[in-house]
């Protein structure tokens, strides 16, 4: 009887301890879950898909849910012929998700590289070799347009330029800057407005307008992200520059 009584007492103590521990966990986890839900609803729900894509940059998909192995953040849906360079350009999403520029299935500008920023993001490459020459971003809301103008003027003939907007690309964009970008082959830069989304690939010395350009107008009646339009993207093959 003593053995049974002691066993019951120990078992009761263990049950009481487990119950108290469970209550403590619930007191911590439930408020945390409620707070996280509120924050997600207030700040990230409109951008959850794009934010996930940004956070997953550089990570490979794995597990049974994946349809196919991923090569990283710059998968191309098609191969490019010889004497061409593959590219992928995606604009920013509102002021939350930074833009992304890829070359030859390699990320060359984006949040994970810490070289993207609000305004106009630019990557220039050597049109003959496909090597990256420069990456830069220019704040066109609270910054100065002069560094952008100087950057555009410094480009050498035969250079290829890839551009992507983030947040606002146009407030400080003056006529000189617009003209210089138009000379690279852009048509949309002339009408680029406040918080419009824009992606573009052109070249210094190009004699025709670029076929690689998309433009999404900021329209409060159609915007996907409240005060910003949805993100846009382009991909394709850039032919090598020939003298």
TrEMBL record:
Q: Does the keyword DNA repair apply?
A: no
| PROSITE patterns for this protein | GG_LECTIN
Give TM segment ranges. Answer: 21-40
ILEI/PANDER domain boundaries: 119-206
- Gene Ontology MF annotations: carbohydrate binding
The highest taxon in the source lineage is Eukaryota
> What keywords are annotated for this sequence in UniProt?
Disulfide bond, Lectin, Membrane, Secreted, Signal, Transmembrane, Transmembrane helix
In terms of InterPro entries, this protein maps to: FAM3, ILEI/PANDER_dom, ILEI_FAM3C
Subcellular location field: Secreted
Q: Does the keyword Coiled coil apply?
A: no
* A single Gene Ontology CC term: extracellular region
Which family is it part of?
A: Belongs to the FAM3 family.
- Designated name of the protein: ILEI/PANDER domain-containing protein
State the organism named in the record: Perca flavescens (American yellow perch)
The organism that produces this protein has a lineage beginning with:
Eukaryota, Metazoa, Chordata, Craniata, Vertebrata
């Amino acid at each position: 009887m003593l053995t049974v009584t002691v066993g019951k007492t120990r078992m009761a103590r263990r049950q009481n301890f487990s119950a108290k521990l469970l209550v403590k966990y619930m007191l911590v986890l439930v408020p945390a879950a409620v707070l996280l839900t509120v924050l997600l609803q207030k700040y990230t729900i409109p951008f959850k898909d794009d934010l996930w894509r940004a956070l997953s940059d550089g990570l490979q998909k794995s597990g049974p849910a994946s349809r196919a192995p991923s090569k990283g953040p710059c998968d191309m849906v098609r191969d490019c012929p010889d004497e061409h360079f593959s590219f992928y350009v995606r604009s920013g999403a509102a002021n939350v998700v930074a833009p992304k520029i890829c070359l030859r299935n390699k990320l060359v500008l984006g949040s994970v590289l810490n070289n993207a920023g609000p305004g106009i993001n630019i990557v220039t490459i050597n049109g003959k070799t496909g090597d990256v020459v420069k990456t830069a971003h220019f704040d066109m809301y609270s910054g100065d347009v002069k560094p952008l103008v100087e950057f555009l003027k410094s480009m050498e003939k035969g250079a290829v330029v890839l551009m992507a907007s983030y947040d606002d690309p146009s407030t400080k964009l003056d006529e000189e800057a617009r003209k210089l970008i138009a000379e690279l082959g852009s048509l949309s830069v002339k009408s680029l407005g406040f918080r419009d989304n824009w992606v573009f690939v052109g070249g210094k010395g190009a004699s025709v307008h670029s076929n690689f350009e998309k433009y999404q107008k900021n329209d409060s009646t159609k915007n996907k992200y409240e005060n910003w339009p949805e993100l846009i993207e382009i991909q394709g093959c850039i032919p090598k520059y020939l003298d």
